[in-house]
Amino acid sequence: MLRLAGLIDGLNRGVARVLRWFALAMVLIQFGIVIGRYVFGVNSIWVQESVLYLHAMLFMLAAGYTLLVDKHVRVDIFYAKVTPAARRRIDIAGHLLFLLPSMAALAWWSWPSVRNSWRILEGPISVGGIEAVFLLKSLIPLFCALVALQSLAILARLFANEDAA
């Protein structure tokens, strides 16, 4: 089980390594948009939407990695003041009762929209934009899968540590 958890970690680390470049591309493209618009009077909706697509990919697909490195948002009302054993129980409960059911619900309820978008190859958000909204919507189930897989990897480690303790 821990070997599978390591493979999931590797998957999310690999995704994060690729996505780092998306952040750089997003900044450079946005800089180009500003220079093009205000210096040369040139504007492209397609290029503007490319920043939106990169931003969506960066945040949706990096969520599993963020969970892996424990840099996600955590409400530390009780967590910071309890023992490591209590933290482990809080983490297990959080993953089993909240995170995994949330990812399952989001995947379940978004799937018809994603499926329909692929069925019609849903076009651009704006006239002249990127003709691939179906790809943008596909980020939702990918987000759910990467976060849920990372949650399962964390749970495997939590249960393994509980057995060792």
TrEMBL record:
TM annotation in the entry: 21-40, 52-69, 90-111
Tripartite ATP-independent periplasmic transporters DctQ component domain span: 26-160
Gene Ontology, cellular component aspect: plasma membrane
Membrane topology: Multi-pass membrane protein
GO molecular function: transmembrane transporter activity
This protein's UniProt keywords: Cell inner membrane, Cell membrane, Membrane, Transmembrane, Transmembrane helix, Transport
Entry's localization field: Cell inner membrane
Binding partners and assembly: The complex comprises the extracytoplasmic solute receptor protein and the two transmembrane proteins.
Task performed by this protein: Part of the tripartite ATP-independent periplasmic (TRAP) transport system.
Family to which the UniProt record says this protein belongs: Belongs to the TRAP transporter small permease family.
Name by which UniProt lists this protein: TRAP transporter small permease protein
Biological classification of the source: Bacteria, Pseudomonadati, Pseudomonadota, Alphaproteobacteria, Rhodobacterales
